[in-house]
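Backbones bend. We report:
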Amino acid sequence: MKPESDGGSEIKNYLVDKREKSSSRWTRVNKTFTIYDIRLKISGLLEGSDYQFRVTAVNTAGNSQPSEASQYAYCREPTYTPAPPSIPRVIDSTKHSISLQWTRPMYDGGADVVGYVVEVLEEGTEQWYRATQKTLKTNLFVAAGLQSNKKYSFQAAGVNSNGTGEFSEPSVEIEPVEKLSIPDLDLPDDLKKTVCLRAGNTLRLFVNVTGRPAPVLTWRKPGIDLQSRGFIDTTDSYTQLIVEKVHRYDSGKYTIEAENPSDTPGPPGSVRVKDYTKESVVITWDVPSIDGGAPVNNYIIEKREASMKSYKTVTTECRKTLFRISGLEESVHYFFRVLPENIYGIGEPCEIPESVLICEVPSLPQDLHIVDIGKTSAILNWERPLHDGGSRLTGYAH
């Protein structure tokens, strides 16, 4: 900024000095030119060096005292926000979470990338929102609290000292589903051969376990109930059998079995009928509350006439929770049901509680007119519709 006082004479020039941090000597920047402005671009500095600057004002009476020295400035290439990282990819998922990973930006903007920001877009919406308020320190993120049977997109951006960079291209829409893996038992080397113990000692059999969902583990020994004879400690990652004060009757072969707790799904939630025409209806339903240990990935739709006992298949492939059933006969009563399916098979059906009559809505009532009117009431009269939609009229709404 200009001096508070020009000393009663117009300022004719500014003298700018520089000094390296490693030196005690000030060097004049503008030896050969005059500076009228209060800004100056200084060139010829050494990259990687720190500099201080000071300014002296000049009028016809002479030079002022130099200003206080500036803070040290580090010379380097100009920096920017980072380039976008790669598209986030899924590395794991559960029913309610998706784990993502991406690679660092190809260009860090000239300053170290110190973290990342992740945004989420929910299926059917247009507004991206921050997945977490805090900046992530790594290129890994677990999006938790997601709804099953909904899809999500993700995008990531790098952060450096200049701010948040450009976001990556969005990921494809991803649905949180439980990944399945076959149970596996990892026996330590000392359990792969005969275990020898002195009578009165404690037997400890420890086995690492993997598998998704967490497998059901069972310890067995012929002729002995290990639940009462010993102590069994089981978690999602290991199982351990402990038998104290062993004796000769504890000798023999011990077996451990692991199996996935798998089953077919339970019935869907209530099946509802809407959008009637004279030859079709739309049915909707809710996702089963019990999925059998694996995601429900398909639904089978069936129909039957109320006068018949057996169902006929409408479709064996439906990925959503609604379906239009066409090719129905007008004025016929129908039942409909939905069967869920996962990788283990077809689950229990859910049927509509009452039969549905296939018909169109009635046409408009005719010749509506006022018969009488009072202070707070009126009496109306009208003629029946010309067409009842293929079903007997049950009433009128007003």
Summary: The CA atoms of residues 52 and 71 lie 6 Å apart. The chain has a mean pLDDT of 88. The chain has five domains: 13-74, 89-164, 182-254, 272-357, 361-398.
